[in-house]
Structures are given as structure tokens and as C-alpha cells.
Predict the 3D structure of the following.
Amino acid sequence: MRYLITGAAGFLGTHLASRLLAEGHEVIGLDNFHSGAEANISRLRLDSRFQFVQHDVVTPYDIPCEVVCNLACPASPPHYQRDPIYTAKIAFLGTLHALENAERNKAKVLQASTSEIYGDPLVHPQPEDYLGNVNPIGVRSCYDEGKRIGETLCADFTRLGRVDARLVRIFNTYGPRMSATDGRVVSNLILQALQGQDLTVFGDGTQTRSFCYVDDTIHATRLLMASPKEVTGPINVGNPTECTILELASLILELTDSRSKLSFLPAAADDPHKRQPSIELARRELTWEPELELKEGLLKTIAYFDSYLK
Ligand code: NAD
Ligand code: UDP
């Protein structure tokens, strides 16, 4: 099969591309390096079944393929808040163009949506039928509302019979090849611990997240793409083991054998207080659940950043 991955130079795009190539598929990666790295593409280019197109998804494109995996969008808060109007354009126009390209080429779509569509949730854990609590005018809304309209477009294209689009709501994912500079908590804290710097905790650190190892997330997206047509999603993909940021920091200090201290900084605006996926639907419809525990996944990620620093 011929897959088009938008956002192929990013964290998840690189992993998805590697996985598809390993399965024997052809992959066209599309990216404009807005938040991704050229180095990720050089690694993929070693495979002759990989082609790369440098393009901004805000502008339409016509690329023949059988599946469009629409991942292009800055995903870390510092990146998506840097140019919020551009982020909103990417989320809306990028998704529209992915759907139009799929319709022209009779291709399926896998849309990377997010747990951010639940905002600061009032229902815990979050099932797919929870409609969310998003501040429409906050600093995170360029991304949150952008991803919500992305879901709307996918649902309408599917309802109208124009495209078979699958929606995956990805919860915080981590692992090797995360960007060292995009400011996400797992990469920040590991790099700080390894370099003997203070670990930056935003707010009092009692906010929670549920971290899923990248191989588990990618496995679930593959299962969703291969599911019968009726399994459109949205479907939560994440690890239901919830922890506070303080617990994450202390686990990272223990696993890196670091003597760094914690440095408490002001809480980020509109930062969700808690987040935990309900994965009953994924268990039932994809026969999937995450395999790697946080400790094992962190050890692999620490090993990656350790060699990155050398
Ligand atoms: P990332 O920032 O590492 O990758 C995004 C990629 O999209 C980058 O390579 C970037 O250059 C590219 N891109 C951005 N704007 C573009 C544009 N206008 N045109 C072309 N390419 C563009 O992020 P990621 O973690 O790999 O996330 C990938 C997708 O998964 C995103 O859509 C994100 O919203 C979603 N997601 C990720 C997570 C997570 O924990 N990593 C969680 C929920 C959802
Ligand atoms: N966070 C933190 N220190 C950091 C980076 C993030 O305490 O150096 C917090 C952040 O405020 C949030 C959580 O960790 O509560 C997860 O942040 P991240 O940016 O990784 O993901 P998201 O907020 O998008 O879930």
C-alpha cells in the first residue's frame, strides 16, 4: 500500500513511517519542518520506498496514495502557542486538504486528534462520549478548537460518504526521538535530570497526565486503520495509568540516579488539571491495550536522551 504521512518529520510521524516501511509499504512523507526535524527525514530516506515532499499543508496538494495519515500540526504547547493563528489554519486547512486529497485519490484518512479536545475535563477518566470543557478563547484553544474542527470535518466527510476517515484521540505519548527542544514534560525533565539541572515543575505539580509509550500508540493507530469501515472512532488511545507531574519527576530522578532538585514555576495558563483516558472502546473495538509500563518506557527514553547528549 501507498501511505501519505503529513507531519512525517515529527515525533509520531517518524515512528509511524518507520513502522509502515518495516511492514513493507511505500511511504510518502510530507512536512515543512515547522516543528519537526530534517534529521528524522534523513534516517527515513535510507529506505528506497520512502519519498519526501516539502510542503505546507495550509496550501492544497494532490498526491496519489491509498491512505492519508494526517499528523501535520505542532503538538507541544510552546510550539502551537508560538503562532496561534497559523496553528488554527494548520488544524483546519491542513485537515480539509488531507480529506480533499483522499477524496480525489479514493484514499482512507487517519486523523491524529487529541485528548486536548476534552479541555480541562469535568468527567474523569474521559470516555469518547464526553463532550469536553474547552475554553474557546484561551491560549490553548488555537490547538484544542483547531483539533475539534478537524474532527468535525472528518465526521462530515464520512457522513456524506465522501471519505472513510478514522479519528484517533491520542493522549500524551512519549519515547525515543521526541524533540529535545519542544518543551514537553517528559523530554524536559529527562534532559534536566541527565544534565544535573533543576527539574522545572509548572504549578504545584499535582496536575496529572497518563503517559503512553510511542510503540503502543503507533500499534493502536495501525489497528484502527485496518479495522472494518464501521470503526470510524473517535477512539481514545493512551495509557490509563495516571500520575501527577511530581510523581513523574521523582520517578525520573530515581531512574536517572540524578541529584537534581525541583524548581517550581508558575502554572501554564489553562493547563488541564487532570487527564486519563478511558480505553474501553479501544479494548473492545481494536482488541488493544498498552503493553509498556511507564517505568520501562522511561528507561528506553532515558537511554535515547543519554546517547543524544553524547
Ligand atoms: P511534532 O510537532 O513532533 O510533529 C508534527 C509535524 O508536523 C512536524 O514535523 C511539523 O514540522 C509538521 N508540520 C507542522 N505544521 C505543518 C504544516 N503547516 N505543513 C506541513 N507540516 C507541518 O508532533 P507529534 O507529537 O509528532 O504529533 C503528531 C500529531 O499527533 C499532531 O497532529 C498532534 O496533534 C497529534 N498528537 C500528538 C500527541 C503526542 O503526545 N505526541 C498527543 C495527541 C495528539
Ligand atoms: N510541565 C511541567 N514542566 C515542564 C513541562 C511541562 O511541569 O517542563 C507540565 C505542564 O504544565 C502540564 C504537564 O506537565 O501540566 C504536561 O505538559 P506537556 O507540555 O508535556 O503536555 P500537555 O500539557 O500538552 O498535556
